[in-house]
C-alpha cells in the first residue's frame, strides 16, 4: 500500500509474526499455567479456579471470568515503579485487564462453568511490545488447560470454553502496515490496532487507535487481514500447547 | 441484515440518532464550556487551558491534551458511590478518560498549541447510555470554543485544532444493528462499538466488543456505516455550537 | 454600624440576597432533584432514598439522613483537582458534608422515616461563594420533594420532614455587615457566619468564624438579624418549588 | 431557664467547669509542650516551629499556623481503629483540626512570625468529652510557650501571639444549660456549642449545633454567657502555665 | 573485648540499663494500661480485650493477640509526619508491630484465652531509642494486668499468660558492647540487637543486625549475655507493676 | 539433639539444602538479572542502577542500595490478592524488603558506589518456603553482576561490593533442627531462624523467632552451625554464577 516499505530491524516481512513459544506448566501451583514468549516479550499466565462468584451473580448458576495484569518493575528498559508502592492501579493496567477479561468471557459458556470464578493473572516478565495481546493469547491457553483438568478430574462434564481466542497487534509505521509490533516499532506507529479473534474467525475485540493522525477505512481492512493471518498461527500454537499439557 | 427487526422503545429507526443538543457556554468559568444532551444523557464538558506541560514534555515546544471523566452519584437510576469516597478512580473511568484524551490528541497540532495543557473535564449529570461518546463529542466542541477564544484574544495565531472529531456508539441487539444505543438497548446488546471520526472521514478510534459472542467482519462494516451516518450529524451540530459561541 | 458603608460590586444593599432560583426536577433519576442558583452559584441537589440504615442503627426502627458534597473541577475560576484523582476527600469537603447532614437531621423525624437512608448529593456546577449554604437550602428542598413522593406513593403515611430549613451566609467586609457573600466579598471578609434556621425561627446551626480578628458579641447579633431576613426569603422559595414539583 | 434543673453526675453546678490542669513541658522534644487535663479528658499539645511556609505563601514574608489532631485508639471506652490503619483521616478529625488551626491563626500576627510554620499537634490520651476545646486551649498555651522561647532566644523580637484564646463547650441537656460537658452529658445533649474567645472578650469561633431540635436565640445568648465565664477561668490558667514555663 | 571502652554520655557502665519505670493504670479506659519509661523513652501501652477472633480462626476455640505501634509526631527531636496523613502505615511501623505481636503470642496459651482478641496499642509519647523493646516490655505488662482482671472478674479461670516476656537492645558502638542503647548511641552503632526473653530464660526473638559491618559469632554471644542481664531486671519490675495493679 | 529424628518428605538429611540453581541473565533488561531456584522456590532478582540518591543523602558522595519484594498472585498454592489491588504494601512485604536492603547495604562500600542508587527487585514466581533468604542470595548475585558490568564499562574503578552475602533458613520441627525449610516444614516449625552471612564468616543478620515456644540458647547455636554450612554452599554457587555472567 506504500511505495517504499518500512524496513524492520528484525528483518521480518511486514506480515510476519515474531517467533512465538508457549510453555505449558511453567509453574506448578496454578490450575493452568503458561509462559508465552513473543519475541522478547514474556508473559506468565496463570489460571486460578475458585468456588463462588461475585455477590451480584450469586445464585444465578453462572460463572465468572476475570483477569489481572501486572508488570515486573524491571520488565522494561528503564525501571517502572510498582503499582503496589504507588498505592493504586494505573489507568493503563485497568484498561488492559478489562480487555483481557472481556476477551475471555466472550468464549466461555458461563452456565457450563457453574458458580465458579476463574481469575487469569498475566504478569509481564519482559516487555518488548504487544504485552496485552500476548497476555490474551497466553491467558486463553492457561484457561483452556485449567478447564481440561477440571474435565479430566470429573469436576466439569465438558469444557466451558466454547473455542479458543488469540490476539495480536498490527500497526502502521511510516506508512507501512506491520504485523505484531515490537516496542521499537510501536513507539513510532501512526496507528495501532489490537484484534482478538476466535477459531471460527469471529471478532471478539477490535481496537484501532490513531496515535497521530486519522486513517481511512481501507487501511483498517488491510490491518484486519494482517491480524487474522497472525492469529491463525497463534491458534495453532495454543492447540499444541494444550495437547502437550495433556 | 436480520429478518425481524428489533423494535426500539423510543420508536426510532435502527439508524436514527436520539435528539442531540449542544449548549455552548453552559457555565461561565471555563475557557470552553458545552453541555451536550443526547436523548436523556447529559454531559457537561469544560476545557481548561493551563500554561505548561507535564514534566516529560518540558522544553519540547509542544502542548498536551488530556481528559477527566466523572459521573454524579445520582446520574444513574440507582445511586453509584463517589470515586472520591472509595478513594480511587475505577477501571471504567480510567478506560473512558484515556479514550477521550487519545481521541482529541489525534486532531490537535501540538506544535501550534505550544507549551500549554488543555484539560477536558467531562462530567455526566444524567446517564442514559452513550456517555463516553457524548463526552468525546462535547469535549471536542468545548476544546474548539476554547481555541477560538485564544485565537480571538491573540494568544494563538491559529487554532491548533486541525479538524473536529465526534463519536457515537452502534450495537447489535437481538440481531439488529442499532445506531446510538440508549441504556436499555445497551444492556441487551450482543455487540457494542464506539467509533470516533474526523470531519474528513478519517478514523480516530474504533472499539468493537463482543459482549456475548463473536461477530463476523461483515457486521462490523455495517456498524461502521451506521456510525458514520450519525457522526456526520454530530459534526454539523458541533459547527453550529461553535458559531453560536462566537 | 460603620460610618462609610462598603459598596457591593453587584449594587446590592448590605442586607440584600442575590437572585435565587430553585428548579425542581432538574434531573429525572433521583427521588428528589433540585437545581439551586444563588447569583452565579449553582448546586445540583439529589435525594436518594434507600432501604436500610448503617449497621450501628439496624433494628432501631429509625432512619438516617446523610449528605455528600462535591465540586466539579471547573466550577471555579481556576481548575481544582478532582478528589477522586487525589485519592481522598479533603478536609473542607468533609466539613461541609457533615454540616449539611447535621442540618437536615435536625428537622427529620427518624421514627417516621423508618429504616431508610436518605443520601443528599450536593454537586456544585458553578461556585461564586455560599456553596455550602446553597447546598443546605437545595438539599432540604430535594428531601422535601422526595418525601412528598413517598407519601403520594403510599410508602410513608406522612412526611418525616417536620419543617423546612434554609441557610445563608453573612460576613463583615471592611467593617460593613453584608448578607449572602459572593466569592469576591467572601475572600475579603473579616468575619464569616453561616446560619441554618427552620420555618419556626429555631436555630439549627450557627457557625461564626473570625478570619482575621475577633469580633464583639453585638456584631454577632447584627449578623444573625441579616441572616434571618435572608432565610425567610429562601423558605418561601422552597415552598414554591415543592408545590411546582407537585 | 428550666424549672427542674438537670442533676450532673459529678455534682457540678450547671455553670461550673471540671477541674482543669495545664502541665507545661510535659514532653521535652517540642518547642512548646503542654498536657491539658479537663476532668478525665487529657490532650497532649506540642508546638513545632519550622522554617518556611507552604508553597502558596512563599516570599510573602508571612508565617503560617496549622494544627493536627489525633486520638489514641484506647483513649475511648471502646477501642477506635487507628486512622493510619484505615488509610485516611476521617471527617471528624478534619473538622476538628481545621477548627483548631483557624482559632489560633486569628490571634497570630503572621507578619511578626515571619516565614515560619507552626504546627500544633494535639493528641488525645484520654477522652471524656470536650477534646476539641481542650485541644484549642492547650495548643494556644503550647504556642505561647514556643513563642516565649523564640523571643528569649532572640530569634523573634516580640511574640507574634497578639493575645491568648481559650475554648469550652456548653450544651443543653434535658432543658438545662450546662457548661463544659463531660462525655456522658454530651451524648444526651439537645444542643451543643463550642466557643472560642480571646482575652479581650472578642469572639473567634462560635459553633452551635442543634443535635435533635432547633433552639431559640435567647438560649444561644445564655449559652454564650456560660461559655465566657468558663473561658475566663481557662485564660487565667494559661497565663499561669506560661509563667511556670519561664 | 576492646582496649579502650566507649564512654557513655549518661555515665552508665556498658552493661547498665537506663532507669526504668512502669506505671500501671496510667489511663483508665483500657482493660490493662501501662506507661513504660526507659530513660527519656516513654511508651503508653494499652491492652484491649474484644470478643471474637479474625475470620480465619473462627470456631477454633482459640484466641488471638496482636499489636499496633504508633509514634506521636513530636515524640522525636524533629517532627515526623503522621502516618494517617500520609495515608499508609510505613515499613518500620509494620516491622515493629509484627515483632511485638509475635513476642506476645509466644507466651500466651490461645486455648485458655478462648475466642477473644487482645490488641496491644503501643504509642510512643517520647522517643530516645529502644522504643520497640520498651513497647514489648510494656505491652506484656498491660496484657498481664488485663488477664489478671479477667481472672478476678471470673471471665477466665486462669491467666492465659504462661510467663512474662521482656525485651531490651544491645549494640556495639566504637567496638564496645553496650546494653540498652539511647538514641544517640543507637545512631552510631555498628551492630544492633534486640532480644526478647521469657522468665525461664527461653529465647523468643533474637534480631541482630550489622548496620555497617558484619560481626563475629563471639560478639553475638557477649551481646546476648548483656541482654539477659537487662531483661532479668525488667522482669522484676513487671512483676512489681502487676502487683501494684492489684 | 532429639532421640527420634523428624523425617523430611524430600528425603533430605536435616543439614541438607534443597537443590539450588542460579541462572544469570535470565532477563535482559536489568543491569544485573538472576533467577534463583531453591527447590521449588523461584525468585527473579533484578538490579537496577540509577543516577542519584534519595534527597536526604544528596551531596554526600555516597550511594544507596534498596530492595523491593513482590510475589505473583499465583506463586502460592492458593491465590493471594495483589498488593496493588489492595492499595497498599502489607506488613510482611515491608519486613522482607527492609531485611533484603539492610543485608546488602552491609557489604557495599557506599563511597565507592558514588551517588548512585541500586534497586534490587525480588519477585517470587513460585513460593515453597524460604523466599526471603533466596531473595537475599539472588539479589546479592544480581548486584554483583551489575557491579561487574559497571567496572567493565569503566563507570566504576572497582566493584563497591566488598564481599558476597548469602542467606538461608533453619528451623526446629518436632524437636529436630532442619536446614533450609520447605513450605510444608516451615508451617510446622516451632522455631524459625534466618541467617545472613558474608564470605569471611561475619554475621549480617540473625533473626530467630519462636513461633510457639521459647527455645534455649544451645539450640540457637546448633541452628547457626547448620545455617553456616548451607551458606557456604550458596556462596560458591554465587561465585560460579558471577563467572558465567562474565
UniProtKB/TrEMBL annotation, chains A, B, C, D, E, F:
Reaction(s) catalysed (UniProt annotation): tRNA(n+1) + phosphate = tRNA(n) + a ribonucleoside 5'-diphosphate
SUPFAM superfamilies: Ribonuclease PH domain 2-like, Ribosomal protein S5 domain 2-like
Domain Exoribonuclease phosphorolytic: 16-146, 164-230
A GO molecular function held by the record: tRNA binding
Origin: domain of life: Bacteria
Listed GO biological process terms: rRNA 3'-end processing; rRNA catabolic process; tRNA processing
Annotated HAMAP family: RNase_PH
Oligomer and partners: Homohexameric ring arranged as a trimer of dimers.
Role according to the record: Phosphorolytic 3'-5' exoribonuclease that plays an important role in tRNA 3'-end maturation. Removes nucleotide residues following the 3'-CCA terminus of tRNAs; can also add nucleotides to the ends of RNA molecules by using nucleoside diphosphates as substrates, but this may not be physiologically important. Probably plays a role in initiation of 16S rRNA degradation (leading to ribosome degradation) during starvation.
Similarity comment text for this entry: Belongs to the RNase PH family.
Official protein name in the record: Ribonuclease PH
Source organism of the structure: Acidobacterium capsulatum (strain ATCC 51196 / DSM 11244 / BCRC 80197 / JCM 7670 / NBRC 15755 / NCIMB 13165 / 161)
Lineage: Bacteria, Pseudomonadati, Acidobacteriota, Terriglobia, Terriglobales
